[in-house]
């Protein structure tokens, strides 16, 4: 259970079994072509210790309108108590996008966090990838530069 303070609807999953809950806009915003804006959700949460939340784009908004979350995923730490705000970006080069109060603008995914400690070592254990870098497992991938 996650305690929430809201000035609007409580986040909920669209379908039973969905991983993330929808975040809705608490204010109207017009996103001009290639413009970004931070949109309030009216939502404040108290995440349980040992968890974090990720703010993720909605695939339908991205596919149909070119609307995405700029810093995806946005990270919310368990100790944060401020309003969750979503920085949206209109990637369309020619069409504005109107965000209305109540529109689903992002998703909130809550995850458990393992306790970790970072330990300096002289070398790392081997893996199938080794030290090959970004894109090294893609089609036609060659040596990294």
Automatic annotation (TrEMBL):
GO terms for biological process: dUMP biosynthetic process; dUTP catabolic process. Transmembrane segments: none annotated. Pathway: Pyrimidine metabolism; dUMP biosynthesis; dUMP from dCTP (dUTP route): step 2/2. Residues 9-138 form the dUTPase-like domain. Its EC number is 3.6.1.23. Pfam families: dUTPase (PF00692). It comes from the Bacteria. Its cofactor is Mg(2+). InterPro entries: dUTPase (IPR008181), dUTPase-like (IPR029054), dUTPase-like_sf (IPR036157), dUTPase_trimeric (IPR033704). It catalyses: dUTP + H2O = dUMP + diphosphate + H(+). Substrate binds at residues 58-60, 71, 75-77. One of its GO terms (molecular function) is dUTP diphosphatase activity. It is an enzyme of class 3 (hydrolase). This enzyme is involved in nucleotide metabolism: it produces dUMP, the immediate precursor of thymidine nucleotides and it decreases the intracellular concentration of dUTP so that uracil cannot be incorporated into DNA. This is Deoxyuridine 5'-triphosphate nucleotidohydrolase.
